[in-house]
């Protein structure tokens, strides 16, 4: 192990696990099968002897398996939840073994539309089957089995990661002690589906998209950039945008009266769009937003209480006051359904101006909440 | 006059007024000049002898001069504010003469990027100068002068129309008795500028846009459609979208697991995008959203109270509880600035789930508010 930063897990590595080789393909919710399937994952901290200290972290739309640490000493940025995972942090790697895997349908090492279809030797592109949140969780379950973990101490995640967390609670109730969905929901609102649809139309309307067959050619960067810009607005609150940008101009005192980016907020959103295009596959954006749109934990009966009745874990549900994409009322619906099932649930609505992105930013208060919840969920000594 | 529908102004006609012929071009805020300028306008009801019963209606981003009535008997749709303008309606054409003109920069008969530049005989395209809300109001003032109106009884409008209304109050304080900004603001939020920027980038990223020189060729329909879709989401509230669409599917009982529009909300937004592309010019969308972004009534001092101190009209400021694009706190800022100037102001926050679009939909309550405000503003008999 290389020299560690204080509180950092240090140098980490990405690993790969392949399963579901024919004839044992994974049966997907859409009716199709998928296999063999490779999953990219990372592990931080050591498993104890009976593997009872394992925590699965589920990432959001644009995340990946690289939740903490750095790949090498010169790596400019740590993993996406490094503030929460490491020695002495909320997910304390001195105590717990933290696992994070890239979702299927993604583009960071797990099977997705940009992977090679073993049946043809070509890139899947849109021949990749539609995957749902439940399918993503099935694949995570295969990884957990492979690692020899009988029961996860905790499954945790924010946003679309929180959807996976909730799915774990109902798909594999005996396999999870503690469940932490953050800024999440049992189903997207019509508004959120609308924003997802705008992003997809921007991608699919980009002439470079070519029905998804752009691999090795020019990518639909304009469409994907626009999808990210609109998404990014929904991750912030109006107030946090006001505080961060207001009506300030970018690098000039007065209006130029042209159609270039003039306001700081324009410049910032453009920049975020451009950065995203460099690191994310447009087709994966289509697949994962569709998985989010399809997710409805209340189905097939329409009764969320009934769906959650099978859960056996203890829950800590966290929402954020200024999150207008997955508003607190959605978390409260989950809490209410759990309580009506007499399931052990704690609820915290963080008072924060950061909007949906608060699950990545409100480190101190989340650390306090999660640290004590993880201890409470431990077997008595 | 043809046969009238009950409460309708009946058949109306579009008129044109041309002014600012060289060397008397209009001096624009951006430093450039524009002229000659044609303005499209409509008039409903009769002027009284001293022309003291005239009401100017200012339209929003996607509106036009056709606020009421129909152009011919088979016209499928009346003007955009027909519910509010006509005999016995809020803007009662038995009493008042209602005038509505298309903004400069627009695409419905007034000078804009799609007009012919008299200097070159070619379409302006992006050679059209940048126009601001203040410039739009200057042009309206020229029309009002031409019509021989010394003082308008009222200037009224919603959204970007409300910005023009506020500008009237400070640009020509002696020329307006009553001011009614609805769902409006003294300045856009960073969030709203961000949404406008997304729309513009979608248009300008469409290969058909060709730096604005698409006239007579394929238009940037995909980009403009996306701009409209994202705009449309911001005009509705989350609750109204939930009520209208929920998570219902379009014309099918189950998911098809494809990337076509599956949810009703997707289908609706797509449809609205397609309809908009048929009737609106993409470059005008760029110009008018820029005018909205630039608008800041508090400038040049940064003090809104000071800017409004010159106003002499009485104000009725109307906001909508669920409007998250121009939230009530923005209207309250205006009201507060007016009160600190001892200016006569009434404020109403409509309790409505319709979001920003409520100014087009909450006809009954707005009719009650506006009818009495117009009567109150009349000279004592």
Can you walk through the features of this model?
- With 381 residues, the first copy, chain A, is an alpha/beta fold.
- The first copy, chain A, folds into 2 domains: 15-188 and 297-376, Alpha/Beta hydrolase fold, catalytic domain (Rossmann fold); 192-290, Rna Polymerase Sigma Factor, Chain: A (Orthogonal Bundle), CATH 1.10.1740.
- Helices cover 34% and strands 16% of the residues of chain A.
- Chain A has 11 helices and 14 strands.
- Chain A has helices at 133-146, 160-171, 190-205, 221-235, 238-244, 264-279, 282-294, 304-308, 328-339, 358-361, 363-376; strands at residues 15-19, 26-27, 33-34, 37-44, 54-58, 85-86, 91-92, 97-101, 116-117, 122-123, 152-158, 176-182, 314-320, 345-350.
- In chain A, the strands form 4 sheets. In chain A, strands 1-4-8-5-11-12-13-14 form an 8-stranded mixed sheet, with helices on both faces. In chain A, strands 2-3 form a two-stranded antiparallel ribbon. A two-stranded parallel sheet of chain A has the order 6-7.
- In chain A, helix 1 (133-146) crosses helix 2, helix 3 runs antiparallel to helix 7 (282-294) and helix 4 (221-235) crosses helix 6 (264-279).
- Chain A is globular.
- At the A-B interface, helix 3, helix 4, helix 5, helix 6 and helix 7 of A face helix 3, helix 4, helix 5, helix 6 and helix 7 of B.
The CATH topology of the largest domain in chain A is what?
Answer: Rossmann fold
What is the total number of structural domains of chain A?
A: 2
Let me know the CATH homologous superfamily of the largest domain in chain A: Alpha/Beta hydrolase fold, catalytic domain
Q: What distance lies between the first and last C-alpha atoms of chain A, to the nearest angstrom?
A: 31 Å
Low-confidence stretches of chain A: none
The CATH class of the largest domain in chain A is identified as Alpha Beta
What pattern of helices and strands is seen along the backbone of chain A? Answer: EEEEEEEEEEHEHEHHHHHHEHEHH
What's the rounded overall pLDDT mean of chain A?
A: 96
The portion of residues assigned to helices of chain A is 25-40%
Instruction: Report the oligomer.
Output: homodimer
CATH architecture designation of the largest domain in chain A? 3-Layer(aba) Sandwich
> What count of helical segments of chain A does DSSP give?
11
Give me the side-by-side strand order of the main sheet of chain A: 1-4-8-5-11-12-13-14
Any idea what the shape of chain A is? globular
**Rg over alpha carbons of chain A:** 21 Å
Structural class of chain A: alpha/beta
According to DSSP, the number of beta strands of chain A is 14
Q: Give the biggest beta sheet of chain A.
A: 8 strands, mixed
Taken as a percent bin, the fraction of beta residues of chain A is 15-25%
Biggest interface, residues from each chain = A-B, 56 and 56 residues
């Amino acid at each position: 192990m290389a020299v560690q930063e204080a509180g950092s897990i240090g140098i980490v590595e990405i690993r790969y696990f392949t399963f579901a080789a024919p004839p044992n393909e994974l049966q997907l919710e859409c009716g199709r099968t998928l296999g063999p399937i490779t999953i990219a994952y990372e592990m931080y901290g050591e498993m104890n002897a009976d593997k009872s200290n394992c925590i699965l972290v589920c990432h959001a739309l644009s995340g990946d398996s690289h939740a903490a640490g750095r790949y090498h000493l010169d790596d400019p940025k740590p993993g996406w939840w490094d503030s929460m995972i490491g020695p002495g942090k909320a997910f304390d790697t001195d105590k717990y073994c933290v696992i994070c895997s890239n979702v299927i349908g993604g583009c960071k090492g797990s099977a997705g539309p940009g992977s090679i279809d073993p049946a043809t030797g070509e890139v899947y592109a849109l021949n990749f089957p539609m995957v749902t949140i439940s399918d993503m969780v099935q694949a995570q379950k295969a990884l957990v089995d492979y690692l020899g973990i009988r029961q996860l101490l905790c499954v945790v995640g924010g946003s679309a990661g929180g959807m996976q967390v909730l799915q774990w609670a109902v798909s594999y109730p005996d396999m999870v002690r503690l469940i932490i969905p953050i800024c999440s929901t049992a189903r997207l609102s019509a508004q959120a589906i609308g924003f997802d649809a705008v992003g997809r139309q921007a991608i699919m309307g980009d002439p470079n998209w070519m029905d998804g067959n752009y691999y090795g050619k020019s990518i639909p960067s304009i469409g994907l950039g626009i999808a990210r810009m609109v998404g990014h607005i929904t991750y912030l609150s109006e107030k946090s945008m006001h505080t961060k940008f207001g009506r300030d101009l970018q690098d000039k005192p007065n209006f130029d009266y042209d159609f270039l980016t003039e306001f700081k907020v324009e410049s910032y959103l453009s920049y975020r769009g451009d950065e995203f295009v460099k690191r994310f596959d447009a087709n994966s954006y289509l697949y994962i937003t569709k998985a989010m749109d399809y997710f409805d934990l209340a189905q097939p009966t329409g009764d969320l209480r009934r769906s959650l009745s099978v859960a056996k874990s203890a829950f800590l549900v966290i929402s954020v006051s200024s999150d207008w994409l997955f508003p607190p009322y959605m978390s409260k619906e989950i809490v209410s359904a759990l309580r009506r099932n007499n399931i052990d649930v704690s609820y915290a609505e963080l008072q924060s101006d950061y909007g949906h992105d608060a699950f990545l930013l409100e480190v101190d208060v989340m650390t306090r909440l999660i640290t004590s919840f993880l201890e409470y969920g431990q077997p008595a000594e």
